[in-house]
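Q: Give me the 3D complex with D-malate.
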Amino acid sequence: MKIDIIISADYIRKDIIENKVVVVIDMLRATSVITTALMNGCKKVIPTLTIEEALKLKASIGEKECILGGERKALKIDGFDLSNSPLEYTKEVVEGKTIIITTTNGTRTLTSCLEAKRIFVACMLNVSAIAEKLLSLNEDVVIVNAGTNGQFSMDDFICSGAIIKALIEKCDKLELTDLSKTALLSFESNPNIIDFIKEARHYNVMMSLGLINDVGYCMKKDITTIVPEYKGGEII
Ligand code: MLT
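A: Here is the predicted complex, encoded as structure tokens.
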């Protein structure tokens, strides 16, 4: 079982992901939002690349059933119901609803992985559940970090390390690329991941916007066993 990492959406290549099991991470915050919404009982999450696509989709599915969420520049989009804060996706708000979400990096990354065989959605909230799923499949895996505006992002990278750590604890037959080994070492040397993440650019953007509670929430490891999968245009 080979584990490789793609460091940001700009580096996704068809020949690397085609027919592979892919795990998409945008821990601050898109994949944490998606995981939380599903954990709190939403029907499905539909990622869209653009705001226009999201609005059109809501109009076609129906106002009552749908919630529009996401961000541009980390802020709520005009006319949308929710921002990209996982804390807004409570059971009371999302249960039984279809969430249509568009974000700068997370949904762009998801929609760029369509050539993969399977696409799972990961964050710190579901590290162990994702690892269990991957072990049960026993296939080569490409962990795709969303990154930030095409650039490498420390937060997604250490989350990849957390998943790899959970994998090696249960399997001694992993083949790690140098990137995967570095992600693992980053996680092992920073058991309190905040010490690592606080150096990240996107962490500091979150702080400057007063989103400390979102960041604190997204760091929580293994609060759910949900393993969201993106297939047929929907995450369930
Ligand atoms: C994204 O998808 O670009 C991020 O989740 C941005 C954010 O944290 O709002």
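A quick observation: Residues 26, 28-30, 71, 74, 84, 103-106 surround D-malate (CB under 6 Å).
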